Amino acid sequence: MNRFFAIRQTCWDWRAAGNFMFGGTGSALMLMIAIASYPDTPSLPLGLVALAFIGLGLFMVWLEIGKPWRFLHVYFHPQTSWMTREASVAALLFPIAFVGVIFKIPLLITLAGLLGLLFLYCQARILLASKGIPSWRESTTLPLIISTGLVEGTSLLLLSYIFSDSIQGWAIYLLLVLLAVRGQSWIKYRQQLTTAKAPKQTLSVLNSINTLVLWPGNILPFILVGTCLLLSNFTNIFITIASVLAILSGWHMKFTIITRAAQQQGYSVGKLKRGRPVIKPPVKRKPERFVL
Fold first, then answer.
1. Where along the chain do its domains lie?
2. Which of 73, 150, 199, 274 is deepest in the core (most CB within 10 A)?
3. By three-state DSSP, how is residue 219 classified?
């Protein structure tokens, strides 16, 4: 099948990518700190860090809007737009999380964690709904974006534990599982794009970062975390390196998918056959009989 006009989209640039990078990390971190602190409440700085990441992502999207002071229009289409739903979730998440952390209300923190997961899900559905971009519309995009966000949020939680010298073993086990899920999601994502005959430019860009995403981004952190578990010694340096690599590789992957591997679908034609067209005799149809 021949494809024409498989050019890269220019509507979303690094600012839109920043929303998926930082917003995904912050929303997943909000979920993780809600799980980690239950039935209590997390520390104020950690909760504010999660909100700061989400706010930074939304601020970068606001910078990209052609007429930024018309940003309220994003709330006008909740029945059709996942971007509207993402913004609506954020409007609920910020006050609920802030009040829950300030006044130490566990119920609000739990609700904020669920809203963080919903925010991450909306981000994945935004890409999935973009049917004109082959690298966004595939069904494997959904588990890839969600698992990447969860890896980043868990890694950031572990980094906070290291600085506060209060690391929890369950978070390390969770990161190990999430790294395996993200690695598998990345492999299936590329396989599906190849099967769907995505534009060559898209496949070429993804191939160029494949080694970086798999080895320093997933396999090496997996080995470092697994070593800590096997030795029953939560070595801070190993966990720090694994967490930083997992976060940076996730950001790099999402940045690449949004900005460089976002070729439009364009047009396509089937394989042409040689020879003259064959004239077929008309089909004779018998008149139908109606029985009264």
1. 2-267
2. 150
3. helix
Q: What is the dihedral of CA 223, 227, 229, 230, to 10 degrees?
A: 120
Q: Which residues, 6 or more positions from 131, have their beta carbon under 8 angstroms from its beta carbon?
A: 137, 265
From first to last of its 292 residues, what are the pLDDT tens digits of the chain?
A: 444 457 899 889 999 999 999 999 999 999 999 999 999 889 899 999 999 999 999 999 888 776 667 667 777 878 889 999 999 999 999 999 999 999 999 999 999 999 999 999 999 999 999 999 999 999 999 999 999 999 999 999 999 998 887 778 899 999 999 999 999 999 999 999 999 999 999 999 999 999 999 999 999 999 999 998 888 776 889 999 999 999 999 999 999 999 999 999 765 545 556 666 666 676 665 555 544 4
Q: What are phi and psi of 8, to 5 degrees?
A: -75, 140
Spatial CB neighbours of 95, under 8 Å, sequence gap ≥ 6: none
Taking CA atoms, 103 is separated from 27, 113, 132, in Å, by 20, 16, 46
User: Measured between alpha carbons, how far is 244 from 246 in angstroms, rounded to an integer?
Assistant: 5
Helix-strand-coil percent breakdown of the chain, rounded to 5? Answer: 70, 5, 25
Measure CA of the first residue to CA of the last residue in the chain; give whole Å.
52
Q: At 8, is the secondary structure helix, strand, or coil?
A: strand
What pTM value is reported for the model?
Answer: 0.88
Instruction: Give me 151's structure tokens.
Output: 């890896």
Phi and psi of 38, rounded to 5°? -60, 135
Long-range contacts of 129-133 (CB under 8 A, 24+ apart): 129/82, 131/265, 132/9, 132/264, 132/265, 133/9, 133/262, 133/263, 133/264, 133/265
Question: Could you tell me the fold of the domain covering 2-267?
Answer: Formate dehydrogenase/DMSO reductase fold (1.20.1630)
